[in-house]
Write a structure and sequence with these properties.
Distance between the termini: 65 Å
Radius of gyration: 22 Å
Structural class: alpha/beta
């Protein structure tokens, strides 16, 4: 089934919201393609609401961002020696799809092991058919990065869970939080209208128990619920506002792999907030973290020294304990290097272990 684009004006402009989404996709795929492509044999990028491919102001949309990231990657030739890379773009509006296909035609011939397919229709119907086909053939899905950027907030949680369970699949979802939050608040005691839609989004009615004291806590509860229902070990997200405190969107990454969690944190911290909104990363509802180009590493310094005060830690142990926090591994490496130069931390290269110098204690620093 096809349908008209409910917001064609979206394609006339290109703002900071779009730029952040696309910067994150480009940054993540730059690390994801070589990480998976060197061994998987085949990897997939899926765009559920692919759009026209280019905005009226000339900037490319997410399908071309993803494709360009591969084609211009310094490791592209070596990666294609080991794996095929498939791009699957789904768009329900036939006018948008034609514009996208015209943009793809402009690229010309692609490398032999790069395959692009477009599909006209409802993305969730198309992906349901894909999941059913995989189930019937008992074939796992190739490692996939699926970008879900819906027109509204109705995203079927059960289907996303099936996709996560079909193979090594990662999801990157644009959550329309302002509308979703309003629906949760207004429909909590209802059994009709948007309540049924929320049951679809959260794969059940557990959303009725989302009731934190602050907007941050409610947001965190909603993300945790989505991650649990969809079956993701790690949920990493930033929120975007329009000048005030209210959040418009959440950009939510779901994965079951430690490397994916670490990579997305790195990408999110590289997003420089400018324009008419703030970009924050939140993993603890009590501690919002503002992402800035030059981060303040003092809280991380306290975190590291507190752990080394207890006992020496290997690099792997520190990475594992850091993973649930908002800090990316690169910040820890930078800070540890600074502390070693200051002779406040020792590092044994043979064992890969960090420790405090024997003649120093945390309270003296």
């Amino acid at each position: 089934m096809t349908a008209a684009d409910p917001n064609p004006e979206y394609w006339q402009e290109y703002g900071q919201f779009q730029k952040v989404k696309h910067d994150l996709i480009k940054g993540y795929l730059s690390g994801w393609f070589p990480k998976l492509g060197t061994w998987a044999g085949r990897v997939l990028y899926v765009d559920t609401h692919a759009g026209r491919g280019r905005h009226g102001s000339g900037e490319t949309g997410s399908p071309l961002v993803a494709l360009d990231t591969l084609l211009h990657h310094s490791y592209c030739d070596k990666l294609l020696e080991k794996s095929e890379v498939g791009f699957f773009f789904i768009e329900q509006d036939p006018t948008n799809l034609k514009a996208l296909n015209d943009e793809l035609d402009e690229i010309g011939n692609l490398p032999d092991r790069v395959h692009v397919e477009t599909s006209e229709g409802n993305a969730y119907d198309v992906l349901s058919s894909v999941v059913q086909s995989l189930r019937e053939s008992r074939t796992p899905m190739a490692p996939a990065f699926i970008f879900v950027d819906p027109y509204g907030f109705k995203v079927p949680g059960d289907l996303l869970g099936q996709l996560m369970g079909a193979g090594r699949v990662e999801l990157f979802i644009n959550v329309r939080w302002r509308e979703l939050n309003m629906a949760i608040t207004q429909q909590r005691d209802s059994r009709h209208g948007l309540a049924a839609t929320l049951d679809v989004v959260f794969a059940g009615d557990d959303w009725r128990r989302i009731e934190g004291d602050t907007p941050h806590e409610r947001m965190h509860q909603a993300v945790e619920l989505l991650a649990r229902k969809i079956g993701a070990r790690w949920a990493t997200y930033i929120r975007m506002t329009s000048g005030g405190a209210a959040t418009r969107y959440l950009l939510l990454h779901l994965t079951n792999h430690d490397e994916g969690r670490d990579l997305m944190k790195e990408c999110m911290w590289k997003v420089a907030p400018d324009g008419g909104f703030e970009v924050l990363q939140r993993d603890d509802p009590r501690q919002p973290f503002l992402i800035t180009p030059s981060p303040n590493l003092e809280p991380l310094r306290e975190w590291l020294l507190e752990r080394l005060e207890r006992r020496p830690h290997t690099r792997e142990e520190l990475d594992r304990e850091l993973r649930p926090t908002p800090w990316p591994p690169s910040h820890l490496r930078k800070l540890a290097g600074q502390l070693r130069k200051e002779r406040r931390v020792d590092f044994d290269a043979a064992s890969g272990t960090y420790s405090l110098p024997s003649n120093r204690r945390l309270f003296s620093l």
